[in-house]
Amino acid sequence: MVSMGRAKRDWEAKSARGYYNVADKYVCSKCFDDYAICKFINENAVEKVCDYCGNESSDAIAAPLEDVVEFVLKGIRTEWGDPNNEGVGWEGGWVGAEVIGSDELIRYRVGLENCSEGLLQDIIDPIWDREWCQRNPYGLRTEEALTFSWFDFVEQVKHHTRYIFFRLDNEEQHFYDIDKIPASRMLDRISWVISELNSEIDIIKVLNLGSEIFRVRVHSANKEYNTARELGPPLPENAKSSNRMSPAGIPMFYGSFDRETALKETITREIRPGTVATIATFKTLRSIRLLNLTGLPKVPSLFDPNNRHMRSALKFMHSFVSDLSKPVVKDNLEHIEYVPTQIFTEYLRYLYTDNEGNSLDGIIYPSAANTDGVSCVLFLENKHCCDHYQDTMDDRDSETKYLFLEKVERRLLRRQSTLS
Length: 420
Known about the structure:
Elements: H1 4-17, E1 26-28, H2 35-44, E2 62-64, H3 65-76, E3 80-81, E4 89-90, E5 94-95, E6 100-101, H4 102-109, H5 117-124, E7 131-134, H6 142-159, H7 170-173, H8 183-201, E8 204-207, E9 212-219, H9 228-231, E10 253-256, H10 259-266, E11 275-284, E12 288-292, H11 311-324, H12 339-350, E13 362-366, E14 374-378, E15 385-386, H13 391-394, E16 403-415, E17 418-419
Parallel strand pairs: 12-13, 15-16
Antiparallel strand pairs: 1-2, 3-7, 4-5, 6-7, 8-12, 9-11, 10-14, 11-16, 13-14, 16-17
Helix pairs in contact: 4-5, 6-8, 6-11
């Protein structure tokens, strides 16, 4: 029989850890959707029967609920805290910050919504009297600060200060919101996020020698284009329209990693019957380093102890990539929607280096014209392309060559959506 003194000590110890008595039950990984909780249960299973779903096995499949609750609370506390400890004001009620109870937190805020009612209640009961607020309750979360600051940057360079935004007075610009990142520092902050993520998940991709990139030129049937000079980026004097990543007058190499995407990215309006698409297959003459904005992993679970530190950065980057990839109609007009991505691209081209001092040769991004398609912009001009691989062997300027034209195909376009 447990003495009153021991029971009191046990209660005080559990209270100090943030929860009271947990139901003496066992739960299996099938009762949760979250991959990190499932992994924890599988690694700590000691029972062969789950008390919640009835799952049985000849091997241990269920972990003690108390261990699972403690694991879940460790994850929650990385983003949620006690309003008393987080500095939330009190004037007959909590002031100026959202404070919620354990019931709402567990049921709706931390990704446990699909658990059974009985399991949810058994997780809530040990912390039923707790109240919660976000860490730093009067400020923005890291991903919120980054996202809102990017939107401010977009507004600034589109409608206010396009060319000297980097000289704005930082203190005066955001004196009213210390969490916001001034426009003058926004690109540096994104650069830091990219470098930090790359140290963890390799979002910088290396295209090896011989990698294929497709590029399309649409023209009338009475014309023919066969050379890298004709099918590569335009000469500076011919770069007369803005593109997603480059303004008029500054040519870059736009391409895709499959023919269909290259066609759809190029054919953006109604065409006349009999128009021809020339598809050029270029190959790399050397390894090139590209920021891969299509390779972002999903945002890690709040309960993933090894990766949850990347949650804010990945939440922002997913939002950022979505904004970069919004479709814009090409109509030969100057589109200010392109301005922020053009500035971002120029920053990466000339100023960005990773933690080892390496620069970039371009960006890989999701196609706005073809679902699941992948496009790229390379920081290359016409002079960086040549017609044949052998040409580089005797070319005194071979060190400046990055791509060679391997193959040319032609397709007759009957209408915008049909290729033959």
